[in-house]
């Protein structure tokens, strides 16, 4: 497969363009030459990579698998080249990162600044993305690192590794002088007297709370506000009568908000938050810097006795 790297790169361009003529123009080669490259790949793999359509080409199911594996292989080659280059000219190359909003807004910026200062030749790309969207891109090589909440029991491919930084617990939260704070924690009915805010597109957060409330009361409530921006969500919770079901780390990591947890008689859901990354980055010094700075920031915000967020 490695002797066909130029042909594999051409295949990716065909997949992106969906048209042999457009792909040949982008690659600055003739269409017959591109067609021959594709034929050689299909002969080597023993299967069709594309379906020829009247107005272009589309990947076969087999072709989709080949494209995903190719992206992974090419990314590993890039990481290896960057690592070898480090021996000659210092840390260089590219880190492609995706992260959940709290990480993007508050944990990663200082870490990226520190890494960039130490290794100015390193180029870093940062995207806001959730776990479900990031995992396929980690597997196919479009991403190197994901930072955020994850299901620790999920099996990872051998080329990916996981590092936990903290455990977050879900709580019903509100502003510090919310009238709900004067109610009995066992009276879950009272939670339904106030409007609810659902943060991000994680309907699952609110659904978890409502499932528990409904099991005890026979009733549930839909959100009055759906918000995809963390700052806007916290401002509305602080300024209004909204309740929300959110990870406790929001109140520790995000500065400038006076929010409280509501003492309710129901179990709190927990999940781990940390990073999932390509194992080939373990010796990358820019990556090591990012990890070290984030780890130090989190330690300063956590109760050292419990390694959990103190509220």
From TrEMBL:
Keywords: DNA-binding, Transcription, Transcription regulation. It holds the Pfam family LysR_substrate. CDD domains: PBP2_LTTR_substrate (cd05466). GO terms for molecular function: DNA binding; DNA-binding transcription factor activity. Transmembrane segments: none annotated. Residues 1-60 form the HTH lysR-type domain. The keyword Lyase does not apply. It comes from the Bacteria. GO terms for cellular component: cytosol. The keyword NADP does not apply. Belongs to the LysR transcriptional regulatory family. This is HTH lysR-type domain-containing protein. It comes from Paramesorhizobium deserti.
């Amino acid at each position: 497969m490695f002797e066909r790297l130029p042909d594999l790169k051409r295949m990716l361009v065909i997949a992106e363009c969906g048209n042999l003529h457009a792909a040949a123009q982008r690659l600055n080669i003739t269409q017959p030459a591109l067609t021959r490259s594709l034929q050689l790949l299909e002969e080597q793999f023993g299967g069709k990579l594309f379906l020829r359509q009247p107005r272009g080409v589309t990947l076969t199911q087999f072709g989709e698998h080949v494209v995903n594996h190719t992206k992974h292989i090419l990314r590993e080659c890039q990481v290896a080249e960057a690592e070898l280059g480090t021996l000659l000219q210092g840390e260089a190359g590219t880190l492609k990162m995706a992260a959940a909003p709290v990480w993007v807004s508050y944990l990663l910026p200082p870490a990226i600044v520190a890494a960039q200062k130490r290794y100015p030749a390193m180029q870093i790309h940062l995207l806001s993305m959730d776990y479900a969207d990031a995992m396929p891109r980690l597997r196919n090589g479009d991403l190197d690192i994901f930072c955020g909440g994850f299901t620790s029991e999920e099996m990872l491919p051998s080329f990916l590794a996981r590092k936990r930084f903290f455990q977050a617990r879900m709580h019903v939260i509100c502003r510090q002088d919310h009238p709900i704070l004067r109610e009995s924690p066992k009276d879950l009915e009272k939670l339904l007297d106030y409007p609810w805010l659902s943060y991000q597109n994680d309907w699952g957060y609110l659904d978890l709370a409502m499932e528990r409330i409904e099991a005890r009361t026979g009733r549930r409530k839909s959100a009055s506000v759906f918000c995809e921006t963390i700052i806007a969500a916290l401002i509305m919770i602080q300024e209004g009568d909204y309740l929300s079901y959110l990870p406790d780390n929001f109140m520790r990591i995000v500065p400038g908000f006076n929010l409280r947890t509501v003492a309710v008689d129901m179990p709190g859901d927990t999940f781990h938050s940390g990073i999932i990354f390509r194992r080939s980055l373990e010796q990358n010094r820019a990556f090591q810097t990012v990890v070290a700075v984030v780890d130090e920031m989190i330690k300063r915000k956590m109760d050292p006795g419990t390694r959990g967020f103190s509220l």
